[in-house]
Amino acid sequence: MANNKKYVYFYGFGKEHTEGDTSMKALLGGKGANLAEMANANIPVPPGFTVSTEACACYSKNGGRYPQGMEDQLKKTLAKLEQMMGKKLGDADDPLLVSVRSGAAISMPGMMDTVLNLGLTDKSVHGFIKQTGNERTAWDCYRRFIDMFGDVVMGPYTGLTHHDFEIELEKIKKKYKATDDTELTAEQLKELVEVYKKVYLEKVKKPFPQDPMQQLDLAIRAVFGSWNSERAEKYRQINKITGLLGTAVNVCTMVFGNMGDESGTGVAFTRDGGTGDSKPMGEYLINAQGEDVVAGIRTPKDLKDMPSENSKVWKKAHADLMKIMSRLEKHYKYPQDVEFTVQEGKLWMLQTRNAKRTGLAGVRWAVEMATGEDMYTGEKLPKILNQKEALTTLSGDDLEQLLFPVFDIAAEKKAKLITTALPAGPGAAVGQIVFEAKDAEAAVKKDPQAKVILVRQDTSPEDVGGMWAAQGVLTSTGGMTSHAAVVARGWGKCCICGAGELGIDYKKKVITVGKKTYKAGDWLSLNGSTGKVYEGQIATQVSPVVAGVVDGTAAAKKDPIYKMYDLVSKWSDNNRKINVRTNADTPKDAAAARAFGAEGIGLCRTEHMFFEGDRIWAIREFILAEDEAGRKAALAKLLKHQQKDFEGIFKAMDGLPVTVRLLDPPLHEFVPHTKKDQQEMAKRLGVSAKKVADRVKQLHEFNPMLGHRGCRLSVTFPELCVMQTTAIIAAACKVSKAKKKVKVLPEIMIPLVGTKAELDYLEKIARETAEEIIKKSGVALKYMIGTMIEIPRAALTADEIAETAEFFSFGTNDLTQMTFGYSRDDIGTFLPDYLQEKILPTDPFQHLDRNGVGQLVQMGVERGRSTRPDLKCGICGEHGGDPASVKFCCKAGLNYVSCSPFRVPIARLAAAQAAIAG
Ligand code: PEP
Ligand code: MG
């Protein structure tokens, strides 16, 4: 059967000829879809066509063969382009030249490859001269084409690289005493072309191809092939990009930025992606082609300077660019990152995409685009988004970045400044110098706490692993749009670029600045918000958000960053439908979480209270006791501590529910395991060292996680359940009776239940204990008794368990452990292999596994509510603070999610986004 699938889509010449639009990103890639969208809107884009991501997927699957029908479509669409442009690809008399550019659905800066000036041959170069009268541009384009084609298309198979050509360029510049390549004449460039062809022949062992169709075919194959290159794979892995078909290939009519002083090329952002400032920013180069700007070879000029260039055309080009950029931002409802070329005074847009940015910039954009006001100056701005739209532009990571530390102001003032360069990615970074990306990766692999600063002349896509591992990146060349800047900004990583004062010697592994040198291992501190590089380690201080929220500092509350956080949080609360609680074990954490907007405690792990001060000795005494009387005596000592702790927590959470979990971990966690510590314990408790050692031995379990822990402890030692219930209820009664009345809503949670009978047994003890205390105290205290659902059997029998349990809290840490059968403490030994081989898409302990564990959660909720329709359900596993998991929890019908205090704002935002998505 014939394959009628469409693989090639035309764009350009307005709506009637353009076959795609921005909604077709998955198929046309971001670049292709947006080129089509701009063409539809009559924005000047050089016409062309896009080969779909589906074609790329087939190509990879078929071992490097085009899908059936694609070649035919390619020829027909090229013929249409040629006819409309009135030129033929690579024609000897009047050649059409094209660029071949990759573009996946999600932008991957620098990851894929681009070839410019395709169609030039020994013959067509003369046609180009004839048509344009510009001999210099023709030879400049040809030498660039051989370089790019050699590097990008043939490089992966032959080892030919850009560097091989670069050496020859330098030689010829030296020969003719040119400091810049723009100084080379047409004749000299022509000479260079001959040299480049020799370089090509030497490595590729074939002459440079002179058939334009063959050039196009090889270039398309190279773009398809680059989808599976190591660096692209790595970028996708780091950025957790999954589920894409492949890359599209865009074949675009060339426009030339290298046609003299009224031509040029550049990149621009509608707003600042580092600080979030609403002013457009960008860089451009006169008489240059696109790659020159991104590669960081020539230092580009600031976009602001464009109107004051000598030639008047630049004023108009700048005004046109500003107009189009503002139109694009409104159209896409998001700040844009554009590439443009000016050919003899006429502006062409080569690309637009949602701009990469730091978390701070993202929050500022969202807030300013929705309020129509500059948060720093109060200046009026266009209102582009409503609150809901603004929230959907944000991620949990964005908000989290506002909670990052910044340098302590006083400490920074005192620090020794080494140099100041471009502030490419904000935040504070402190680390030890490394010069190679692989060294950064190795350091962090060896010690996850290792802090390194990656110092490079510039970075390339091969360095992304090391850039990711480093605290910050420092480069000596390149501008705000260099590879290092763009990638770091996308991650919210601190980055300083273009520090030209630094002499970086990779061989000797030293940096020289003036008379000083810094070697690998020396400490540096980078202020990515100001571009300042300091010697040594500078103390950091909490962010204004943390200072304002947790410490209530008045000055911090006036900081625009705090105000933006506050607005986003309020908007989140206006929209979300489920509650957000916190996991907190101390009054201090509880108070911090409340300040972050927690609406209760979803999990208070009481065992954390057993380690403080003298308490550990009481619990050890309990463990060593020979009989019930001995255990009760030990527990009595703990009771007063626990009760005091609960009083503190109840006061901090006045009016909000507090779920307290009974003791959960196995007892061996509380006893010492070294001989020395055991001896000390024996001495302290007045028993023999042998007795301690024997008991420790006795407590040994082969699988403690599946052993004597959770509710099983209280089944063996009911006095434990009695003591803890007493502490909770007595504390609740006391604070609700106190002069400054506290409203307490205690929820007693019994952990690790697998059968209804287990729960019944302990619920009875807890309820009897509670009732007696309440009766004695004369307070009308309301409390609940519920359970955690963290064993698959509990989820499966949730209907039975809900006959007794008044609430469920899904302990998805243990539930994940027991559903997969992966030990939560040992998964690190094999998880990297599972991720690498794509056996698991992500770490299931970080992101809830919807298909498996999620099914148990859903089932638990449904079955539980079939018995008890008003059953309150929440989640208290780590997933409660993971945005994707929070969204799942909303869908599953949970009443709340509970997470660590600093993740509360993130969960509020995720819950709002889930509600907005509906
Ligand atoms: C859980 O298992 O998800 C849970 C919250 O309990 P813990 O992590 O304390 O075992
Ligand atoms: Mg658990």
From TrEMBL:
**Keywords, comma-separated and alphabetical:** ATP-binding, Kinase, Magnesium, Metal-binding, Nucleotide-binding, Pyruvate, Transferase
Protein name as annotated: Pyruvate, phosphate dikinase
Q: Which reactions is this enzyme annotated as catalysing? A: pyruvate + phosphate + ATP = phosphoenolpyruvate + AMP + diphosphate + H(+)
What biological function has been recorded for the protein in this entry?
Catalyzes the reversible phosphorylation of pyruvate and phosphate.
Q: List positions binding substrate.
A: R605, R661, E790, G811, T812, N813, D814
* PANTHER family listed in its UniProt record: PHOSPHOENOLPYRUVATE DIKINASE-RELATED, PYRUVATE, PHOSPHATE DIKINASE 1, CHLOROPLASTIC
Q: What is its EC number?
A: 2.7.9.1
**Which positions are annotated as binding Mg(2+)?**
E790, D814
NCBIfam families, per the entry: pyru_phos_dikin (TIGR01828)
Task: Kindly identify the residues recorded as the active site.
Answer: H483, C876
Q: In this protein, which residues make up the domain named Pyruvate phosphate dikinase AMP/ATP-binding?
A: 26-62, 70-302, 308-359
Q: Where is the PEP-utilising enzyme C-terminal domain?
A: 570-914
The record ties this protein, via PROSITE patterns, to: PEP_ENZYMES_2, PEP_ENZYMES_PHOS_SITE
Q: Which cofactor does it need?
A: Mg(2+)
